[in-house]
Design a protein that fits this description.
The structure is a homodimer. Chain A has helices at about 15-25, 30-35, 45-50, 55-65, 90, 95-110; strands at about 40, 70-75, 80-85. Chain A has about 130 residues and is an alpha+beta fold. Chain A has a domain at about 15-100: Winged helix-like DNA-binding domain superfamily/Winged helix DNA-binding domain (Arc Repressor Mutant, subunit A). In chain A, strands 1-3-2 form a 3-stranded antiparallel beta sheet. Chain A is globular, with a radius of gyration of 16 Å. The structure holds a DNA duplex (20 and 20 nucleotides).
DNA sequence: CGGGATCCAGAGGGATACTG
DNA sequence: CAGTATCCCTCTGGATCCCG
């Protein structure tokens, strides 16, 4: 979906499910957050994980996550530039949610073009 | 976001996080699934829970959930018509995910009209 | 390296009216 | 009651080029 960016909680005022979904809604947010669970990552490092994510999209998703207080952006005044992304304390509280998402996916999502039987167990997302 | 409806796993083939998100992506899906955790519900019954969801949208979301094998639709040949929705076995496996979403929302989602991130402290003088 | 600016298509979603 | 059928528009997200 595209839930209107924090326009409001459409379900009902204060609906917790809707509210949480708004945080991880955006084509790449869930996955970005998940990867950052592993630790700090540089921009391109993160990008390499998201095979089909354009540079512009990754930037935008990261900015929104930053605005939501879930991700911290650290810019190092160097040449060439270095920017590192990490989860904030608030972002880390999403860990149970992200792990639940991952666990369900591992059990129930049928992988595309990977016929059952030769299911690969490299479950590192991204 | 609007992830293209199951077009593919954009993150990476088999990415479990991305895959799970695709299931509950759609403006009302997460909330619908959550409400169905409580048990079978009729169409309008469900609709009353989703304050701002139009009839058309609810129908569409339910159809997609049905197509994904998460929701069962039972039509009773009566007049007036009666249609009941319930979670399938597969749908019920999402319970941990939905509960995680709810739990986080309860703890971290700031009530509407106070968008997270731009919390303003308008100091009333005097 | 890590972006920003611009242009653009189309899917997602809203409003409204009609129906078996 | 539980939907279709249209119309229309917003916003997301992709492509491309440029920048310090």
């Amino acid at each position: 979906m595209a839930r209107t960016r924090h326009a409001r909680l459409d379900c009902a005022p204060g609906c917790p499910v809707e509210g949480t979904l708004q945080m991880i809604d955006g084509k790449w947010k869930g996955v970005v957050l998940f990867h950052l669970l592993s630790g700090t990552m540089r921009f391109n490092e993160l990008r390499r994980q998201l095979t089909n994510c354009t540079q512009r999209m990754l930037t935008r998703q990261l900015r929104e996550l930053e605005a939501d207080g879930l991700v911290h952006r650290e810019v190092y005044p160097e040449v060439p530039p270095r920017v590192e992304y990490s989860l904030t304390a608030r972002g880390r509280t999403l860990e149970p949610v992200l792990l639940a998402l991952k666990a369900w996916g591992e059990d129930h999502v049928i992988a595309p073009e990977i016929p059952a039987g030769e299911v690969e167990l490299t479950l590192v997302p991204g």
